[in-house]
Specification:
Helix content is 47%, strand content 16%. The protein is α/β, with parallel strands linked by helices. Helix 1 (9-16) packs across helix 3.
């Protein structure tokens, strides 16, 4: 093979010491091949720099070797682009885990934004036509039709977080109720006795579970009433919710916000009202995102390992693509308290 020639299957076969047909079976994963031979072929592929022809491979495997990543909840689809999604503290971290995991496997995903019913129908049709082998779904919508639509398309899917409506799709989630309990325990350990909460949209299961865990832990400590205000996981909603709480309950001394962005907004409002954090009001957030580290003071928060959760979504999806008979499954990650200066 000359230095500028494109490596072929025959080149790989010669280096590996096997037949061309064996190389094809290993690359296309169409039959079981002895592990030692598989390893020899992989080494030969690396040594020759051979790149499989995706179109030819698809004819053999009947797969597109493409994965769709569907994001819903990042904003109106005509006003948001991929760069905005990637830099969002929540979506960006999940996508970092997904893209990194897929890249290790030589797969480059297509990003699709779904903010309207028309978007959802188009994505479902795209998948049904075989343009992707499966989909990874990330949504913050309280009503999410996509899992059911994707299931109807016949393509496997994995969703970030338990779907609000029952659907036969696998999902990766966090033990959100335990995360809310961690926040309550931290605030109680500081001697706070007049707690409040800034929730996410309570129709979203994750927000509801965080609030339930927080309230339950305070109830076990004898606190029968914990005032709350509902936000939507954004900085502005955290500001508004904190203003409402201070108006209705000016003696509050502890706040749990169901996202770091809302916690950051709450701290801004507290400062504007002359309240010191954490001396007058202790604040705990949720996510352990960049805003928690950059806030002043830095925010004590409940960490969810979004990058690891994204990578786990990839693992589950590729397993299901390889074995379509697999039943939908769930993987639940454990939250962790990260103590900083706000509480």
């Amino acid at each position: 093979m000359s230095a500028d020639a494109t490596p072929t299957l025959e080149d790989v076969a010669r280096v590996a010491g096997v037949s061309r047909a064996t190389v094809s079976r290993v690359i296309n994963q169409t039959r079981n091949v002895d592990p030692a031979i598989q390893e020899a072929v992989r080494r030969a592929v690396a040594a020759t720099g051979y790149v499989p022809n995706r179109a030819a491979r698809s004819l053999v495997t009947r797969r597109s070797d493409a994965i769709g990543v569907v994001v819903a909840g990042a904003g109106p689809s005509d006003n948001v682009d991929a760069s905005q999604v990637l830099t969002d503290p929540f979506f960006g971290r999940i996508l970092t885990g997904i893209i990194g995991s897929l890249r290790l496997r030589g797969i480059y995903p297509s990003l699709m934004l779904a903010e309207t019913e028309a978007d959802e129908a188009a994505i479902a049709a795209h998948l049904k036509q075989g343009n992707a082998d499966g989909a990874l779904l990330i949504s913050t919508h309280a009503v999410d039709r996509l899992p059911a639509l994707v299931a109807e398309s016949g393509r496997p899917a994995v969703r970030f977080a338990r779907p609000p409506q029952a659907a036969p799709v696998s999902y990766v989630d966090l033990a959100n109720r335990d995360g809310g309990a961690l926040a309550a325990d931290r605030l109680a350990s500081l001697g706070r006795r007049r707690p409040a909460a800034i929730t996410g949209p309570l129709a979203v299961p994750a927000a509801h579970e965080r609030q339930s865990g927080y309230l339950d832990r305070w109830a076990r400590r004898g606190c029968a009433f914990v005032p709350s205000a509902e936000g939507n996981f954004t900085y502005d909603s955290g500001e508004r919710a904190m203003k409402h709480l201070l108006t209705e309950h000016p003696d509050v001394d502890a706040v749990f916000a169901a996202s770091d962005l809302m916690a950051q907004g709450a701290i801004h409002t507290l400062h504007d009202h002359g309240r010191r954090v954490p001396e007058d009001v202790a604040v705990v957030g949720f996510d352990d995102s960049a805003p928690a580290r950059l806030s002043r003071p830095p925010i004590t928060t409940v960490r969810q390992p979004l990058e690891d959760m994204g990578a786990e979504m990839v693992r589950l999806l590729l397993e299901r693509i390889a074995d379509p008979s697999m039943e939908p499954t769930s993987v639940i990650f454990e939250p962790e308290l990260v103590v900083r200066e706000s509480a």
